[in-house]
């Protein structure tokens, strides 16, 4: 979106991310509520960034999307009365909390501007393993002057 000449449609972003436009619209609604994007309806409408990429961190995005569960592992609650389960949960609670705090801290250090810069470095180095957003002009965006869906 940062490098597109106009608004990005949910359909174009969904195609680039290989998902459904409804999923994109839900995600974008959270980002709009946080003030990171705005939308315009009608012909030529779509989504545009509403603040500089250097002002948005991965943690900001995480929080704007509802702060989903970070770690797939966690305390077991299959048998709450089991004293072994209770002991294991008590022993691991601090470790899970520390891991989550460390991950959130790291997410807060990474800006979208940094990700865009790394993306460009990888493009120059020849790492083209991504889908691109169509620019609506019929071009696939596969030439060196293309503006990929970032």
Automatic annotation (TrEMBL):
<dbReference type="InterPro" id="IPR000944">
    <property type="entry name" value="Tscrpt_reg_Rrf2"/>
</dbReference>
<dbReference type="GO" id="GO:0005829">
    <property type="term" value="C:cytosol"/>
</dbReference>
<dbReference type="Pfam" id="PF02082">
    <property type="entry name" value="Rrf2"/>
</dbReference>
<feature type="region of interest" description="Disordered">
    <location>
        <begin position="130"/>
        <end position="150"/>
    </location>
</feature>
<dbReference type="GO" id="GO:0003677">
    <property type="term" value="F:DNA binding"/>
</dbReference>
<dbReference type="GO" id="GO:0003700">
    <property type="term" value="F:DNA-binding transcription factor activity"/>
</dbReference>
<dbReference type="InterPro" id="IPR036388">
    <property type="entry name" value="WH-like_DNA-bd_sf"/>
</dbReference>
<protein>
    <submittedName>
        <fullName>DNA-binding IscR family transcriptional regulator</fullName>
    </submittedName>
</protein>
<dbReference type="InterPro" id="IPR036390">
    <property type="entry name" value="WH_DNA-bd_sf"/>
</dbReference>
<keyword id="KW-0238">DNA-binding</keyword>
């Amino acid at each position: 979106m940062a490098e597109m000449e106009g608004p990005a449609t949910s359909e174009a972003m969904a195609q680039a991310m290989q998902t459904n436009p409804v999923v994109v619209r839900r995600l974008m609604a959270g980002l709009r509520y946080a003030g990171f994007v705005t939308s315009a309806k009608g012909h030529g409408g779509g989504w545009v960034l509403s603040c500089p990429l250097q002002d948005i961190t991965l943690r900001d995005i995480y929080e704007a999307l509802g702060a989903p569960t970070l770690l797939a592992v966690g305390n077991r609650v299959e048998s709450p009365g089991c004293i072994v389960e209770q002991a294991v949960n008590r022993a691991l609670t601090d470790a899970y909390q520390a891991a989550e705090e460390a991950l959130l801290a790291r997410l807060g250090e990474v800006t979208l501007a940094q990700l865009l810069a790394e993306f460009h470095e990888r493009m120059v180095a020849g790492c083209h393993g991504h889908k691109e957003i169509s620019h609506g002009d019929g071009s696939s965006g596969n030439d060196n002057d293309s503006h990929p869906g970032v």
